[in-house]
Write a structure and sequence with these properties.
The complex is a heterodimer of chains A (419) and B (226).
Chain A lengths: L1 H15 L1 H37 L5 E4 L9 H4 L25 H10 L3 E16 L2 E10 L1 H8 L5 E4 L3 H4 L3 E5 H7 L6 E6 L4 E10 L4 H4 L2 E5 H8 L8 E6 L5 H11 L3 E4 H4 L1 H39 L1 H9 L4 H36 L19 H27 L3 H7 L1
Parallel strand pairs in A: 3-8, 5-7
Antiparallel strand pairs in A: 1-9, 1-10, 2-3, 2-6, 2-9, 4-7, 5-8, 6-7
Chain B lengths: L3 E12 L5 E12 L3 E6 L5 H8 L7 E6 L2 E2 L5 H11 E4 L11 H12 L4 H14 L15 H13 L5 E5 L7 H18 L2 E5 L3 H5 L3 E6 L2 E4 L1
Helix pairs in contact in B: 3-4, 3-5
The chains are: A alpha+beta (419), B alpha/beta (226).
């Protein structure tokens, strides 16, 4: 009953000055809408840029790195166990790039609950022969189906079909930049020379375009068996096992575990791409800062309007107090006024922000560098809406707090005697 | 004799700003149920200050105040608000109606706040009081659209909504013309005679005071005649 009465009074005061109320609410609406739009757009952009690299990057990569042995024989000899051994001119040993026992490892990894999928890979350096010129490049032997499923390979094949690389014998998908240099069209044949000096003819079945020039100029893709043939290696020869996890954040732990378990090198995505995370974090921070600034400005607007309203309504406050409303009740009335401005302004702001996001999402954004993108990217995460909603309430509460406290402390005697 | 509604015992008040001024000195008196009392005195005699102390709105005093035989000293802000709501009705020189509400709603507000009756019942009681004061036809009008005399009568209706023990008035006729102040006086008189309502009215209008049942005269913060 009491609550209803107080809400009723707050409502009447609000509606009596609906123009001011509207201005205050529009301030909140605008800032919340901008907050949502900005964050959605910024994060959409972040996701896009991260996706360029991260989509194509395994969460954990198992491989054998060529490096000198950490355990030199002298350290293992019992006679020198207690001495400090200086060894000069340590060289890398004859380590094979091949992953030992690749078959069982893949089976074991596939059986792990944390793992979404595994894709084998085989990387080799080659020379593309264009007349008398040799161009260095890399051929990645991949399992097209696994690669497409886990790493969106088919999204980046801009001409031809990804699956052809498996179905057509001795075929290759060239990076777009590389294809331009070689003037190779789909259906043409390119000559490659392996590091061992073997020459092969490969049929171009498609173009691959990631949108990053340096990669598109060098990389090309073939099936695993084709690549094994280039190298003259048996069918179990693999240089990389790429693992995609269900939870990306587990990557460092899993990488460490696999490295020990399979005695191979393991690199996690966070280590491999730390610079992208930094960039994303900074962009997110900037958008939050701008959004919060907008809200604070709106908060000051509400503060002003409530302050004015209190000066205007001194008489009403005085008589309410004289006729039995306690300071607490008056405080509540003005807090409710502030919070309802925040609530309704915020709600409309959320809807408007969603509207703006949808509009941005439909603006064409076509760039040759990003073949998979047709419109501006937008991230519709509900988290932004929750943050925006709660921020609108928090800011308006703070904006209403001091005016409300002031109103609750109005001394009715002073007002009434002053007349 | 009959029940004591209000009792003041040795009430003293001082202002300290900028120099100490003794505003009220040793005020002691009682008001019985059904009395129509007026407090008169010159400007600055402390009569309004006394009224606001008696109304519980001003708590900065020494001495004892009992309303309905309950001591008011040391009570919290919320408790005092509740007592004002339930036991005291106010009529001021200025009407203090809330312009955002209708006349009826203005009268109802303290009643709803008291939360003793349902809202429909409060509305019914408010209507009764408006009709008693001959302004029932104004009920649905906005408070700022009625005349000054009517506003003061609405304020009286508002003071009556919770059947208060005592109605306090601070110059309730001060802003009204003769016709309207006579009307307001007649209403007060009628309330004491017909409804046995206790009234304590501060005024500087000698003729108003002369017609009340009891006159307390103040000078320099002291009661000189009662």
């Amino acid at each position: 009953m009491n609550a209803r009465l107080i809400i009723g009074i707050a409502k009447s005061l609000l509606l009596a000055r609906w123009r001011q109320t509207l201005v205050a609410a529009v301030g909140v609406t605008f800032s919340i809408a901008m907050f949502i739009t900005l964050l959605s757009f910024m994060n959409g952009l972040n996701d896009l840029l991260d996706g360029l690299i991260l989509n194509r990057t395994p969460h954990v990569r198992l491989y054998n790195e060529i490096k000198p042995s950490e355990n030199q024989p002298v350290n293992m000899a019992p006679a020198f166990k207690n001495s400090y051994n200086f060894i000069r001119s340590v060289k890398a040993g004859t380590i094979r790039q091949e992953i030992y026992n690749s078959g069982p490892i893949m089976q074991a990894v596939e059986a792990d609950d944390r793992v979404l999928g595994v894709a084998p890979k085989l990387t080799t350096q080659v020379f593309y022969n264009e007349g008398s010129i040799d161009i260095t490049g890399v051929i990645n032997g991949i399992d097209v189906e696994a690669e497409s499923r886990l790493f969106h390979f088919q999204d980046y094949v801009t001409a031809g079909k990804a699956i052809d690389v498996k179905n057509v014998a001795n075929s290759i998908i060239l990076g777009k930049g590389l294809a331009d240099i070689l003037v190779a069209h789909v259906g043409d044949v390119v000559q490659v020379t392996t590091a061992q000096g073997e020459r092969f003819s490969l049929k171009v079945v498609g173009y691959f375009q990631l949108g990053i020039q340096e990669i598109d100029k060098v990389q090309s893709y073939a099936s695993i068996s084709t690549t094994q043939k280039l190298l003259g290696k048996p069918a179990n020869y693999l240089t990389d096992i790429q693992v995609k996890l269900k939870d990306l954040n587990q990557a460092p732990a899993v990488a460490k575990e696999y490295s020990r378990l399979f005695s191979a090198d393991a690199e996690d995505i966070q280590t491999a791409n730390s610079q992208f995370e930094t960039g994303s974090n900074i962009r997110t921070m900037i958008s939050y800062a701008v959004g919060v600034t907008l809200l604070i400005v709106a908060g000051f607007g509400i503060f002003n309007i409530l302050n004015m309203m209190i000066y205007e309504k001194m008489d009403s406050i005085a008589i309410l107090k004289a006729t039995g409303f306690a300071g607490q009740d008056v405080n509540m009335i003005f807090l409710i006024i502030a919070l309802s401005i925040g609530f309704f302004g915020g709600m409309v702001g959320l809807l408007l922000g969603f509207g703006f996001s949808v509009i941005i999402d439909h603006i064409p954004f076509i760039t040759p560098a990003l073949p998979t993108i047709k419109t501006f990217p937008v991230n519709y995460s509900p988290v932004f809406y929750m943050i925006g909603g709660s921020f609108s309430l928090i800011t308006t509460y703070l904006a209403g707090f001091f005016p409300a406290r002031k109103a609750s402390r109005v001394d009715p005697v002073e007002i009434i005697r002053g007349k | 004799m009959s029940d004591i509604i209000l009792e003041a015992r040795h009430i003293n008040k001082e202002f300290h700003d900028p120099v100490t001024v003794h505003v009220l000195t040793d005020i002691t008196f009682t008001i019985q149920k059904g009395e129509f009392t007026s407090v008169i005195g010159k400007s600055g005699s402390g009569k309004s200050t006394l009224l606001y102390i008696l109304s519980t709105m001003d708590t900065d005093y020494t001495g004892e105040l009992l309303i309905d035989n309950v001591p008011m000293t040391g009570k919290t802000d919320a408790d005092l608000a509740r007592i004002r709501n339930e036991k005291i009705g106010f009529v001021f020189q200025f009407h203090y109606l809330l312009n955002e509400f209708t006349v009826l709603r203005n009268v109802m507000l303290p009643g709803i706040k008291l939360n003793k009756h349902s809202e429909e019942e409060v509305a019914h009681r408010a209507m009764e009081r408006l009709k008693m004061l001959d302004i029932g036809h104004l009920a649905e009008k906005s408070a700022y659209k009625i005349s000054g005399g009517e506003k003061q009568r609405v304020a009286i209706a508002r003071a009556l909504i919770n059947d208060p023990q005592i109605i306090m008035g601070d110059e309730p006729t001060g802003n009204l013309d003769t016709k309207n102040s006579d009307l307001v006086f007649d209403i007060f008189k009628d309330l004491t005679v017909a409804h046995n309502q206790t009234l304590l009215i501060v005024t500087h209008d000698q003729s108003f005071a002369e017609n009340t049942g009891r006159v307390i005269e103040m000078e320099d913060g002291k009661i000189i005649r009662q």
